[in-house]
Amino acid sequence: MTAATHSTPFPQVPESADAVLDGLDPEQREAATALTGPVCVLAGAGTGKTRAITHRIAYGVRAGILQPSSVLAVTFTNRAAGEMRGRLRQLGAGGVQARTFHSAALRQLQYFWPKAVGGPLPRLVERKVQLVAEAAARCRLRLDRNELRDVTGEIEWAKVTQTVPGDYPAAVAKSHRDAPRDPAEIAQIYRMYEQLKQDRGVIDFEDVLLLTVGVLQDRHDIADQVRRQYQHFVVDEYQDVSPLQQRLLDLWLGDRDTLCVVGDASQTIYSFTGATPDHLLNFRTRHPSATVVKLVRDYRSTPQVVHLANGLLGQATGRAAEHRLELVSQRPAGPEPVYTEYGDEPAEAEGVARRIRDLVASGVSAGEIAVLYRINAQSEIYEQALADAGVPYLLRGAERFFERPEVREAVVALGGAARAGGNDSLLDDAVDLPSQVRAVLGTKGWTAAPPAGSGAVRDRWESLAALVRLGEDYERAKPGATLSDLVTELREREAAQHAPTVEGVTLASLHAAKGLEWDAVFLVGLTEGMMPITYAKTDEQIEEERRLLYVGVTRARVHLGLSWSLSRSPGGRASRRPSRFLNGLRPGSGSRAARATAGAAAGVERGPAARKRTRRGPVLCRVCGKTLTEAGEMKLMRCEDCPSDMDEALYERLREWRSHQAKDLGMPPYVVFTDKTLMAIAEAVPSNGHELAVISGVGARKLDRFGTDVLAICAGDEPGGGGVEGS
User: Fold this and answer.
1) pLDDT tens for residues 600-614?
2) Which residues contact residue 471 at a Cβ distance below 8 angstroms, ignoring those fewer than 6 apart?
């Protein structure tokens, strides 16, 4: 099957409707061909959900079942909508509307406002924070900059959950929100804010949805006109819809059921903005005849990464956890996730920077590496560490690629050179498209080698370098293409918000990383108080923090590092503890016996400062005495090439047993035990549950599930099934 990632940047348009389905796996094909009635696609991370739904739309259009202009696909970010438009264009289904909820609602509101209300649509307020500040001042309440931002967020939450000012305090109490000010004060500011907007004839972002809902509710003739226009709806990331967005969707649909939703309750991480997975979880209740398709084949991540992701959700509780998807990796085996404990935050940042530098030196592109953290305030120390290590980086959250001034200038310059053709002396020595692009962008600041340091100069160069790489990709995909062809492609991408990747290690919060992926991901600062965050108090809030970590884990394709530090600064008290979410997953944390021998010997690496502070020595090979550094070697407690005292016959019996277990459970063999763990068992030949528990890769859950069988095999008996009692 065709992988869901790393597709060619310029694929050929399929020749027919049936060709649109080529390369889809059986579940993706089922979703793509389910074109009637309500459809719910439950899609795990990395399973190709965007691929499935774009092929579904394209197949319907190319087969003549769907009219392009009658389809409205909605998602939550301009980037996701742009990616969807780009994919549909590549599949020969250009003309389908793919928009965010707000973008679609604003177009309808602008069109129907003169008819529904009269006159032009009120102006959209550009800076809501300024108006909130004025509202607070009129209420004689002083807010600092951070409080102002938080109160603005509370007003936004209230509006998307359809909470009026008078009901805000009760809604906060019911939802267990941690309000930044006294709820009564926020309600007062909220009421004054709404009054100021009305007095000045302006509306805000949330009003766009509220007013569209109001128009469609009150004017049945307008609602009928919208429903005649749009007859088929597709909603991506359905777990993130707010009550207000669901209300708008219901009005768009009317009494029809031509709806396809796609989502994963285990990736609900935006409840603080009003998102709720309830609409996804209740879809079968609302639509009993719905077709439900589950996508669980993970094309993104290695079995090792997927195993950790599944284990993380396996400990989850609550309603979303009841509907979790057990992912099955479709990729070859890769390295085990690396867990590292450091003495302090600077040591952690320096250690991560060294690992990244080594990865880049080994051939991993810097643009395929990310450092993800819980809050943005954690970024500064990693910016400094990467700069000190000479590793380029970029912060997630800058303006869109094609909106950057240097990119706008570059596209204009390329267009001018294309129009001038042979009359432009810049192109005299350029023999092909890439050399033409380099020649033109050389006048805008691009150089063959990047500038030293970081900052605005480096940011500008990275943007231009991305355009150079795109020109090289375009030449490879379309030999003989001209500069005019490339400029046309850039214009179309600009319209679709389909930006090329800028080279450099990405620094981003876990929330900002949603929807993205990299070859190597480093999850940092994984301590209690940060993951889960201190202000997560209720069970629901704790579980959302777990889902946030799950999203971070599933961003990694091959390499995954998880780290934490014992103190904030050098010399500080080592009082921090690793995140509870790693208990039972990181080596040495699965049981009391295992925890007693936790540390590098159990597979958790120690940064230099951590070893010094905890007075732990290096992990030595039990055969030759050499210091061990690789996780696999530490699992075996010996060098890979040192002679093994493993019982070969026992190892083969364990492998045969594992094969039968995997077949019975319907899962890959490595999920039962990895080869390294079986080797460690065959070398140690444990005689009781405690001896088995201390072997890295066993853990409490596997001890309970498989312990009796494994100990029976080690004793030369037939396995009887089950775990170890009283171990």
Assistant:
1) 333 567 666 544 433
2) 433, 434, 436, 437, 438, 486
